[in-house]
Amino acid sequence: MDERLMVVVGYDRAQLLDIACVTSTLDEANWGANPPYRVRLATPGGAPITCSDGMTLHGQESLERLKGPLDTLIVSGGLGYREAAADQRFVGHVRRLARESRRVASVCTGSAVLAAAGLLDGRHAATHWMWVDKIAKAYPRVTFDPEPIYIRDGHVATSAGVTSALDLTLAFIEEDHGPELARGVARLVVAYLQRPGNQAQMSMFVATSPPPEHSLVRRITDHVASNLDGDLSTAALAPLAGVSQRHLTRLFLEHLGRTPGRYVRQARTEAAAHLLATTTHPITSVARRCGFGSAETLRQAFVDMYGIAPSRYRSAHSR
Length: 319
Hints:
By secondary structure, this protein is α/β, with parallel strands linked by helices. It is built from 14 helices and eleven strands. Helix 9 packs across helix 10 and helix 11 packs across helix 13. It has a seven-stranded mixed sheet with strand order 5-2-1-6-7-11-10, with helices on both faces. Strands 3-4 form a two-stranded antiparallel sheet.
């Protein structure tokens, strides 16, 4: 039986979850995948690597000796990405194997390795929101977008941080074997099926309250989290819920203790606070990304919620 050879590239101080989210998800798919996936971890010299959490993984293939054709080459991310991207020998073998692969992908800061290999030149790419500014500065030929959880640009795919690798892997499974198998794997790994690639990374940090138990309310709050810069007026949300504006307001008051409008304002303000504390984006850009019409509107929401202006919040909380 033919197999799809999926090679994950690791290195010292790689993020264990970046690797495991890919390998474990593909392994779960093999109950229904035809042809099945054969997943291998390739490391420099085939030697063990020490992940960023101190765990040791044993390489199954030598990166230098591995030859194609490969179905998919996936470079993991992690704190060791700078050293990996600066290692010309390592990068050269990634470049070589990419030429022999049907698909090429990266997880998290693994995008820097693909960029160093010239594989992202002229492309749009995703990476972890925390590192996007540094990586984008180092590789100006690549258009990095800090928002999506993954981006497909031709045969190259790049994903955001850590567990977004699971979303990208589910997308690969759906592409290879159809949506039914992808849904089955998502249920096995207890994953949300299926976060679209263009869902904003920031939506994962919106936590205005625990997830509501009411399914309709939860569906609308999920929509809010994924579309902070969209039209989130009660008039726009009610048709999505299939109820009247009055009934949607009544449901929000009952289950969340606030109107849809107040919920949206708080969600946007919390998302803006996270961006201010963890990025160097100008305040006007933060306001736009989080759905505020202007920096002044953001300032008013901030003062109402936190008692200080966005600039002072950034000074006090930035890393």
